[in-house]
Design brief:
single chain; 20 strands; 18 helices; Rossmann fold; globular; disordered N terminus; six-stranded mixed sheet; about 525 residues; alpha+beta; Hect, E3 ligase catalytic domain fold; four-stranded parallel sheet; 4 domains
Length: about 525
């Protein structure tokens, strides 16, 4: 007996939830179009839509990032669903998972809880029959294959644009600017940070930036090639002169190294150095897989200087044997008395900590081979290095989100303190996840020197690779609590400030017009 028949017997509509998802692939999949078809299906079949879960602008390749579907599944698992059916436009809107079994798994969880998934625009009834099972399996495989084919087509198109000399995403970099051009390569306007093209036929190329920035870039090359200054020494000199990077931050060894190694400074357009296809593992490609168009832009560095800098770096980073790597690590241990990824990366003539991980499987294994053993776990230093690199990215995303809502935000370059709309301040910190026998723990330290109105705490997942959730802690409510210890559950006093994303904070910054009462 179907649900529709049951509804007729009871004389009351069946409560249903509506799930809609749209990426950017086609207008026919707009959430409004999906909702209209679902509403028509519900009217014909006797359903009452009591709840809507919507993922807008979200890829269907993975569950990550699809907060609405995650909420739906969580409600079903926890027994909180106040509906008996889920209405979806078609199989592809449920997901384009590359493993068809993953799509089936999420549907099975709903069915196990007594909730049936209906595909409203499909030509089959999802009634568990043999024909429905076969067709649905084929549809799931086809949905995944569509994404694979689209990925290949997009990659081919991007490679063609690279060979034509057009820039594909990413900031221009210090000393360069992004220039918007039309289909005839006629200049239209310089693009600022966060600005993008709006017309399909427009393209972006790189062009030389201000003369003072170009001079700084060439000074970096002269100091490195002619005066044999290290990247760290160059960074210290630039910071001493008050020169900031294109992101308005102090220079570091890494930012100087990036200027010395990126071919865009001699006018080359390079693509596919890193792949992240189909939302899978990020892969660093070998140079023979890179797509390169030489002399695509006007360079701002003499090619001879660039080649000389590359030779110096290649000689410094030549492939060491295992014995040479361990010999250098032993010498560093003798100088410092302890080892960590951070210590290794801070030494100019040392291979990177990534080299040791790749060659020996892990830093801990390399430490053991040189006889470094201690009761203290220094791996937290490695985690802290990763979190320090993550912090400016989270701050930048937050600033972009605030400005997208029409609010103003100023950043203190020394402290990263945000001043929003000249009305309140906020700071952002990242809490490392520590695992113990009692479960996961996070330590938070509130900055009593800055005393921000709101402290945004990004709490990391186990492994400290991804952000788990956010706490928005008002200074006025935290009182004199300088340090907080969080567990997985912290009671209503603290968890009332917990959110899955930063949308609630961004809503606080939104400007609203007020009318004066007559």
């Amino acid at each position: 007996m179907t649900i529709e028949t049951n509804a007729e017997i009871r004389g009351a509509p069946v409560r249903a939830a509506r799930y809609v998802r749209m990426s950017t692939e086609h207008q026919k999949y707009s959430t409004e179009n999906q909702a209209e078809i679902i509403d028509q299906y519900a009217a014909r079949r006797g359903f009452e839509i009591v709840r809507t879960y919507a993922d807008e602008g979200k890829s269907g390749l993975r569950l990550d990032g699809r907060d609405a579907l995650k909420k739906l599944i969580a409600d079903v698992r926890a027994g909180l669903a106040d509906f008996e059916a889920i209405l979806v436009y078609d199989v592809s809107r449920w997901g384009r998972f590359q493993d068809a079994d993953e799509s089936a798994y999420y549907e099975f969880q709903c069915r196990e809880a007594g909730i049936v998934v209906h595909y409203c625009a499909e030509q089959f009834e999802n009634d568990g029959s043999l024909s429905a099972t076969i067709i649905k399996s084929m549809k799931r495989a086809m949905a995944g294959e569509y994404s694979r084919e689209l990925s290949a087509k997009v990659f081919t198109g991007q490679c063609r644009l690279i060979n034509l000399g057009f820039r594909q995403g990413g900031p221009a970099g210090f000393g360069l600017r992004r220039l918007l051009v039309d289909e005839h390569r006629q200049p239209k306007a310089l693009l600022g940070r966060g600005e993008h093209k709006s017309l399909q036929t427009d393209r972006v190329v790189l062009t030389p930036g201000p003369a003072e920035e170009i001079e700084v870039v060439n000074r970096i090359y002269r100091m490195f090639v002619l005066h044999r200054r290290s990247e760290r020494e160059i960074a210290v000199m630039l910071n001493g002169e008050g020169v900031l990077t294109d992101l308005e931050r102090p220079w570091t060894r890494g930012t100087v190294h990036q200027v010395l190694t990126n071919e865009k400074y001699v006018g080359n357009n390079v693509y596919n150095r890193v792949s992240f296809k189909l939302k899978k593992k990020r892969v660093v490609n070998d140079p023979d897989q890179w797509v390169r168009a030489e002399e695509a832009f006007e360079g701002i560095v003499d090619p001879d200087f660039f080649i000389a800098a590359r030779r110096i770096i290649e000689e410094r980073s030549r492939r060491f044997t295992d014995a040479e790597l361990l010999e250098r690590l032993t010498a560093l241990l003798g100088q410092r008395g302890c080892l960590s990824g951070l210590i290794i990366d801070e030494v100019e003539d040392m291979p990177s900590s990534a080299t040791y991980r790749s060659r020996f499987g892990s830093l801990v294994r390399a430490y053991q081979l040189v006889g470094y053993a201690t009761d203290r776990d220094y791996r937290y230093l490695e985690t802290n290095r990763v979190l320090r690199a993550l912090h400016p990215k989270v701050v930048e995303r937050t600033v972009v989100g605030i400005r997208a809502l029409g609010a103003s935000v100023a950043i203190d370059p020394a402290t990263d303190l945000l001043t929003i709309n000249d009305e309140f301040t906020a700071s952002l910190s990242i809490a490392r996840c520590a695992e113990s026998e009692r479960g996961q723990r996070w330590k938070i330290r509130l900055d009593t020197g800055l005393r921000p109105d709101i402290t945004i705490v990004a709490r990391m997942e186990a492994g400290n690779q991804e952000i788990r959730d956010y706490y928005l802690l008002p200074w006025i409510d935290m009182g004199e609590a300088v340090r907080l210890r969080l567990g997985e559950d912290n009671g209503v006093f603290l968890d009332a400030y917990r959110f899955d994303d930063l949308d609630p904070f961004l809503d606080l910054t939104r400007r609203a017009s007020l009318r004066l009462a007559a």
